[in-house]
Amino acid sequence: MLTQQTRDIVKSTAPVLAEHGTTITTVFYRNLFEAHPELLNVFNHANQVQGRQQAALANAVYAAAVHIDNLENILPAVVQIAHKHVSLGIKPEHYPIVGEFLLKAIKEVLGDAATPEILTAWEEAYGVIADAFIGVEDNMYQAAREQEHGWNFFKPFTIARKIQESENITSFYLKPADGSKVPDYKPGQYISVRVSIPGEQYLMIRQYSLSQAPSADEFRISVKREAQHDPNGVVSLYLHEQVNEGDTVEVSAPAGEFVLDTAKATPVAFISGGVGITPMMSMFETVAAVTPERPTVFLHSARNEALGAFRADVEKHAAAMSNVQTKFFYSGGPDGVITGETLGKYVDIAGDAYVCGPVPFMEAMIRELHALGMKEEQIHYEFFGPALQLNH
Predict the structure, then answer these.
(1) Which range, of 51-55, 87-91, 300-304, averages the lowest pLDDT?
(2) Which domains occur in the chain, in start order?
(3) Best label site of 32, 87, 246, 307, fewest CB within 10 Å?
(4) Active site residue: 62, 95, 126, 238, which one?
(5) Is 95 in the active site?
(6) Rounded to two decimals, what is the model's pTM?
């Protein structure tokens, strides 16, 4: 347990972290990768280039300082991050390395202001927080390993089928290379795909939502082809252009907390933009199979029809349901985009809404759902990539 003095010192550093947090985490990652380049096999390089990982870590460190008296307040964030860590294969032995370089970065950026008392307090606090992560992740690894057909870390999968869904989204059907089955998963969860790209020094890992309802012998991911100059594009271009049926990639067990509550029969709305449709496909297909009488709305926004994936699949699943409304919106077409007025027309505010898509789209949808009277606990969402601050 942390002493009151340690907690007071850590809390007193919160304003400094608010001001210098991203500088500290930028220095942290730079020094960490210089000393331990092997960790570049685990981290998403694109998030580094875009500064998203640095911002996310700065937010997490700041939140820990603010809530050091009641760390259970940050438990939901810990669990969400722990899912990502387990999906990436983070191990207990990584934590002391991170702690060492985080303290060095605080010292480097704050200079003399980082007194020995402050550094000692943060060292103790980091130890407690790291232990919390290690404990949560150990339970997750155990659950993944012990479930039927489960495993830990990465396992070879074969591309069974590769199917183009739209101008920029292609689905990959993945089967275990050893001929075994895949574990069950919750609709909305994701897997990590790890690839070794010719010409790239380090392994690359990306997380993709599972885009169909659980199936005994395969996973499906649906990958948007990112632009050539986008750092995110390295893996998506490789999958689109170079990976073919019969090829092998490495896959981690399903993870994630953005999941459909399949026990509910109350109204549900799925609201997505762009490639945010992928987890919704798994959820929508599950409703069609498990609770087909559940009042359901499926709204999707894309730039144009050529980029609107899964329309035929949505119509096929809807045909099995007794109380469903579906609508695709194309920003270049007569229906335009999904507005607050649209949501008011379609969404039953007594039920639940699941939202996924680009950050500005999600912020707008969540803001409009709140304006309609939906409470925070009725609105479910998750950002792709590192946890970012939500402004709504």
Answers:
(1) 51-55
(2) 4-146 (1.10.490.10), 155-251 (2.40.30.10), 268-381 (3.40.50.80)
(3) 246
(4) 95
(5) yes
(6) 0.89
